[in-house]
Predict the 3D structure of the following.
Amino acid sequence: MNSKNNPPTPLVELKNIHQSFTLSSGQKIKVLQDIHFTLEEGEILAILGPSGSGKSTCLRILSGLIEPTLGQCLRRGKPLIGPNPDVAMVFQTFALLPWLNVAQNVAVGLEPLSLTKLEAEERIKKAIDLVGLEGFEEAYPRELSGGMKQRVGIARALVMERPILCLDEPFSALDVLTAEVLRKEVLNLWRSGKTPVKSIVIVTHNILEAISMGSKILVMGTNPGQIKLAVKNDLPYPRDEISGRFKEFVDNIHSVITEDIIPDTPDWVPPAMIANAVEALPSVQLNEVFGLLDRIHESGGRADAFAIAQALKQESTQVLLMAKAAELLDFVDTPKNAIVLTNLGNQFVKADVNLKKQMIRAQLQQLRIADLLKTKLETSENHEISTEECLEFIRDWLPNEPAEKIFDTLIQWSRYGELFGYNATSKTVYLDQPDAGA
Ligand code: ADP
Ligand code: MG
């Protein structure tokens, strides 16, 4: 017995982790900022965040596949060196080898463990039974449905008999019902005690998945990846998705994510600051924005961002980015989780294509970054600049944003609005003059 009443040592602890990568161009990108969390025994940790927020990078750090740029990863209180022997991993893409049958695929990770043939066969049989694939040992991946392939993926992790099971977006390539079934089965396996799995880390961009599985939920934001919220979820398993407390949880987490992507402007910001703010453009196509506006119009001018995401079968983050784009163009307001058409947005939905183009042109000129670029082009020779100059210009005004993405979006939007053009041959951006002299 412990002489002191110390809390148990976490299975894994990430301490003040910062992660940067150097791209082949030499550019350094910051991917994780000050990440701190623990994985305790008996816990399911759900890491929820949009793509690019660094979720997989966190998994790779805690499984010892990469060493963090700064900070420490501890395994049972001691610095982790090399691969974490406590971790088994399940991948989104199943990562099955097509030339091996189910049993052989499950056996793939066992080789380095130098088990006897009998021990290996017992483990394989047990893992295959646990995921309900008995009878399919001889089948090849091409003969299996997506759900069955992922069962093989899970068996391959279980066969390692390790205390930590890491799942990286394991169900996102599956249809909704199959995903739900597998989610329940993973939970049952963990609760049954039939496996050595003590703790699970599941990475997901699906809020319901995070809340139905996680006993602790980390919500991550992007640019750079950071933890926006860490909450315990002590709702009893199996969880009832229609209970009031479940819904309350979902609402809270929706609000954190929405606030991260489309913050309600605080009242105390002096107007001068708003006037001078240079807004980044979200990476969305205008036709996505148009689709969103139509959808809101059909719902009577107001809709819930997450309901739209479900209806459009889109990631909710993507829908929030579309809403942000529409808001920059003054076509919608975004109080809380709702998206509401403005009068202008309403006019836009009803406009014909020519009027739509004119309206986009007018709205673009209200955006600081477009307005600044217009001034720059007006004062440049032949009213044009090179792509490189344009990227440089974007980096000057928006140093923390990915300039190439902003460039693509800006050009795509302003081609539609005939504000700026892009000549792909000379790789130059020029000032468009719609109907000049007409
Ligand atoms: P998520 O799993 O949340 O989608 P990732 O952890 O895969 O996010 O990646 C976060 C960011 O880090 C992304 O912008 C990705 O492009 C970048 N990234 C990840 N690994 C590398 C790497 N080895 N080199 C350069 N960039 C990387
Ligand atoms: Mg990922």
User: Anything to note?
Assistant: The pocket of adenosine-5'-diphosphate (ligand 1) is lined by residues 21, 23, 29, 31, 49, 51-57, 225 (CB under 6 Å).
